[in-house]
Amino acid sequence: METVITADYDELSRLSAKKVAEYIKPDTLICFAAGDTPLGMFKELVAMQSRKEIDLSAAWYAGLDEWVGLGPQDEGSCIKVMTEAFYGPARIPKERIRVFDGLDPDMDRQCREMECWISSRGGIGFTLLGIGMNGHIGFNEPGTPETPGCFTVALDDTTKSVSQKYFGKVLPVTTGITIGWQSLYEARTVVLMASGAGKAPIVRESLKGPSSVDVPASLFQKHDDVTFMLDKAAAALL
Ligand code: GLP
Question: Which residues are catalytic?
């Protein structure tokens, strides 16, 4: 387990992008979290591509999670965030991206299709995850099941209240769909990011506490190739 602590959010974004760039290889399956934390890193990656340092369009992509009931038109949906912050500016061809459709009435089908996308590419090669305020990873909430593959989950109260920052209003979201942590754990390389003083207590639990499903980020402590990328504020209690 490696821990990188940066001076601030800008340095976190720059160094995380540099790390990601090492793994953007033709036909590697990449899984990026949405959320606010990686937004600066996406900008850096797009800038690196425009300087011709990397080719982001040669990889495959799997969207980590989605709010059930939200689609591409909805402010704060993972697909809208990712399209605006990354898939669009990075000009990723549509056929290289698989995301959960939060509007599909059949979530089991969404899970099966994502599992098939992942397994037919030999599993996830690289994943960059954000640590949520309650230690969640994607929508692997505290107490997350050991179930392999993808699943839907009842959202934790913390997630529901934090979610308002993405939507700009109160939305009655109750359920998420996610790639399960077991599939993420099978990735060859895992990066977990956190930024800001608000995350410091959960970052401490994730790195220093017991490895437990109660803090899903802590499950990655024992991964063979995991890096926690933190800015100084998020690392303040380590
Ligand atoms: C959200 C998303 C995750 C994200 C995490 C952290 O609820 N489901 O994909 O990584 O929580 O988000 P943020 O980076 O905004 O703190």
Answer: 65, 134, 136, 141
Q: Is 34 in the pocket of ligand 1 (CB under 6 A)?
A: yes
| 38 CA closest ligand 1 atom index | 14
Render each residue's pLDDT in the chain as its tens digit; 238 residues.
999 999 999 999 999 999 999 999 998 999 999 999 999 999 999 999 999 999 999 999 999 999 999 999 999 999 999 999 999 999 999 999 999 999 999 999 999 999 999 999 999 999 999 999 999 999 999 999 888 999 999 999 999 999 989 998 888 899 999 999 999 999 999 999 999 999 999 999 999 999 999 999 999 999 999 999 999 999 999 9
Long-range contacts of 165-169 (CB under 8 A, 24+ apart): 165/36, 166/35, 166/36, 166/75, 166/76, 166/81, 167/74, 167/75, 167/76, 168/75, 168/76
| Interval between CA 22 and ligand 1 midpoint (Å) | 23
Ligand 1 within 6 A of CB of 40: no
The pTM assigned to this predicted structure is 0.96
Calculate how far, in angstroms, residue 192's C-alpha sits from the geometric centre of ligand 1: 11
Domains parsed from the chain with CATH numbers: 2-231 (3.40.50.1360)
- Ligand 1 atom nearest to 178, measured from its CA: 8
Q: Coil, helix or strand for 9? A: helix
